[in-house]
């Protein structure tokens, strides 16, 4: 009996995700070669989502799209599971007991052939250069140069790729 219930649950989740992703393709006018790999990917907000050819985003990832801003993902990008990309955040400075929390919004741009590891967090305004790698669990607060490998909290340069090695 438990196997039947589990099967029905999984089947239902698959149908739900398929309908959700279809709605994303329509709402954000996403290129059909962009893939949602797995379940639970969330795109929300009234900003733009620009997806390149042959790129994908993994299970349980979230992309927040502030009105008037965008997230652009280049061609041939691999975004692992549980990646977070935000275009709005709270300004950390200020006395929150005396004043209302202030926020800021900026677009995020990810170049071509980028690999972003599991559980990475990309802050508003970040630009990630072509052929870069963002390590798992990294918190990216600043731009990442082309061919750079970054990791850590906050993300720092580990090294540059050894091309044609």
Automatic annotation (TrEMBL):
Keyword Transferase: yes
Keyword list, A-Z: Acyltransferase, Repeat, Transferase
The keyword Zinc-finger is annotated on this UniProt entry: no
SUPFAM superfamilies: Trimeric LpxA-like enzymes (SSF51161)
Pfam entry (one): Hexapep
GO MF term list: O-acyltransferase activity
InterPro entries in UniProt: Hexapep, Hexapep_transf_CS, Hexapeptide_acetyltransf, Trimer_LpxA-like_sf
Similarity-based family: Belongs to the transferase hexapeptide repeat family.
Protein name: Transferase hexapeptide repeat protein
